Amino acid sequence: MEQGSCHCGQTAWEVKLIDKVHILCHCGVCQKLGGGPASLNQIVPKENFKLKKGNLKVYTYYGDSGKAVRCYFCPNCTSHAYHHQEIMGNHIVVRTMLLESARSMPPGAEIFGKARLPWVKEVAQTFDTMPPDEPEPKSKL
Ligand SMILES: [Zn+2]
Ligand SMILES: [Zn+2]
């Protein structure tokens, strides 16, 4: 189990990762929501995530598919713990940078590479959008 927490400490969680790696997402939604060139994530089954402290607030937006994407964040400091896309069923996307072990985890792959900022170097195998065997595109540019 990896321990996660928000910036202010009002919320904390634990999550069981499939692999101890970061998946970099360069999509436009991650850039806008996170304010950086890419977000660091991993897809896990919903039951792998347990909220240990506080309550997360939900921000919902709709992808091009018309399906809802729900982002769960700390209502005080806005750190984004994970999001759930209706289209992904029982899986959620956890933000791996918010885990205690984030610094020791290597990059595993990069997705939505087509939206990479031109000065951001490639650090892992890159997919234009999603790897072919992933559940569904996680967001639209
Ligand atoms: Zn917080
Ligand atoms: Zn993204």
TrEMBL record:
UniProt GO molecular function: carbon-sulfur lyase activity; metal ion binding
Protein's UniProt name: CENP-V/GFA domain-containing protein
Pfam families, per the entry: GFA
Residues in CENP-V/GFA domain copies: 2-113
Species of the source: Hymenoscyphus albidus
UniProt keyword Zinc present: yes
Entry similarity comment: Belongs to the Gfa family.
Record keywords, A-Z: Lyase, Metal-binding, Zinc
